[in-house]
Every structure is written in C-alpha cells, then in structure tokens.
Amino acid sequence: MTRTTGAIAPTIALHPAAQADLEAHVTTPRATTRDRMLHRLAHPPRRPVRVLLGAAGVATVSLMLLITGIPTSATARDVFGALRGPGEPAFIVGHRGDRASAPENTMTSLELAMDRLAYVETDVQLSRDGVPVLFHDADLERITGDHRSVGDLDAAALRKLDVGTWYGSEFTGERMPTLDEFFTALAERPDARALVELKADWTAAEVRTVVDRIERHGLRGRVVLQSFSLETLFALQRVSPSTPRIMLIRELPADPVPLAQRLGLVGFGTTAASVTAQPQALEALHGAEVAVLCYTLNSHERWEEVSALGVDGIITDEPSELDEWLAVTAPGT
C-alpha cells in the first residue's frame, strides 16, 4: 500500500501533457478559478510549508469537489455490509495476498488469501503496451533485480521476469500476473472480493481498461477500486460512477464527509495514526454511511487500537494471525 510519491490530498500530480496545458493556460485571461486551484495544487511548496498549509489544502480540494463531484450509486453497506461500531471486529483484507506465506502479488499469494478471506488487496500498473498487471513498486528492482519500471516493458517481457525467487527458492518461476488472470481466479471464488489499487495517475481511457475487465469477468460489485490519486478518482468518476471506490489518504481531514460525498466514495483507506488522532472523523464518516479501512497493520497492539474505535476493515500482511487474534478477542466471528 505504500506510495513512493506524495500521496496526501492537498497535492495533485498531473500527467505531463495535462501539466503543460495547464501551465500555458493558467496565466491567460481565460483561466478560471478552478484552473488556478489546480495549478496551485500541482505545484506544492517545500515540505515545511506543506505541513503548515495541509489543512487549507484539504479544504481547497473539498471546495473543488463540491463543484465537480458526481456521487456513486454504490454504498458502503452494499459493498461491506453493516458498518462496525466500537469494539466490533473488522473484516480482514490480505495485503497483496497472503504475504506471510507467499511472495506478494503473485497468484500463489492471492489465491491463498482468496481461499480464506472475504477480501484481498492488490496493485495494478500498466505495461508499456497497456496491459494491466499486478505489481506494487515504482520499479522492478526489489522483486526482480531489474532497475526498470513496469511501464518500461511490454507485457510479454514482464511475464518472463521471475517474481518469486527473492522471497524463497521454492517460489522460483513465479510470474507477474495480469489483471485478467487475477479476475479469472476471483470469479471462480464467489465469496471473495477484491480491493484493487490503481497505482499513480490514470487517465479516463486507462481506467476504462480496468472497468471493462470487471464487467467482462462478471465482477460488478465484487471489485472496489482505490487510489491515492485525485486525478485517477476523477477519471473513475467520469468513466464509471457506479463502480465502488475508495480514496487512500495518509491523514483524514477533520471533516472528511464532503470529500467522500463529492467523490462518491464508499470508503477511505487510511493509517491507524490518522483514525486515533481524529476519532471524530471516523464517527462522522460512519454517520454518513462511509466505511473506514486501515492499512497496513501487523501487530496485536494496532489491531486492538483500531478495533476499539470501530474501524471497518484491517489491511494486513498477517491475515492468518489476525484471524486467530479475532477468534480469541471476538469469539464467533
């Protein structure tokens, strides 16, 4: 779930072409207030200033969304069932599959999670030839030893890479799955659902490649798309407002409800630190029928902390251990 570029709401990363158009347009008499808002959001100040202006930035984004938002027809209850109250057990989400048992974002890891859990989480990027594949990092170095990125190679070249040996010799020969391969396996497991993160910024046309695959595999309502990127969430809203979506954000604004409503979100994915620092934000979201999930929590202390507040879902690298912990702390779940 970790994002290597800035991911909090007050900044918007635009594609180079969109950035160039904005640069050329924003100083002209035709530039609108919204254009100037986007320009300021796409040019964040240095970090110390960003920290001071963070709250104002979220307010600016919320105001912009009041103008542009289109609510989704899906609700959190449609997707996740009843929202949790304080002390009620959260549902478990396997982070990139079951990373405690197999290399992340491989079919082995994902199928282990799908067979045991209600939800599995994975990451999607586009190959050079536009094929959606499952991979998290900004480059291939950590997993494959290749210094290039997913977008530098076509799908055929990516499929030749070994994405299992780094984890253990018994996984030598594991290949990078395509989104179609994952969706085929998900469709075979009617009780499983998926949270699919669209990494970085996606255009409307790129988002459509994912939405079309959801429809093609008969997975409407069983796949929730999520992103740190406002640009991606805007694109998803335009292409398929009925597709359930989550905004990933490291720090919830004090009043996140307007942001959720105008983006048509079914939920936020955020940190434990964020919900413990601002429990009133969690309460407000539940009052507005919006779910809250926390990533990526791997200790009993963190699980207990967020469960006491009523977080709806916990994304973890240790799904089996969390399941055992819930069996002890919340018998019957």
Describe the strand arrangement of the main beta sheet, using strand numbers. Answer: 1-2-4-5-6-7-8-9
Order of secondary-structure elements: HHHHEHEEHHHEHEHEHEHHEHEH
Mean pLDDT: 85
Principal-axes geometry comes out as globular
Helix content: 40-55%
By DSSP (H or I, 4+ residues per run), the number of helices equals 15
Sheet with the most strands, sense and barrel status: 8 strands, parallel, barrel
| Alpha carbon gap, first and last residue | 26 Å
Rg over CA atoms: 20 Å
Low-confidence stretches: 2-18, 37-72
- Total beta strand runs: 9
Strand content bin: 5-15%
What class, by secondary structure content? alpha/beta
What is the structure about, briefly put?
By secondary structure, this protein is of the alpha/beta class. The protein is built from 15 helices and 9 strands. The protein has helices spanning 16-26, 33-42, 47-68, 76-80, 107-116, 141-144, 155-159, 179-187, 204-216, 230-239, 257-263, 272-277, 279-287, 300-309, 319-329; strands spanning 91-95, 119-126, 132-134, 193-198, 223-227, 245-248, 267-271, 291-295, 313-316.
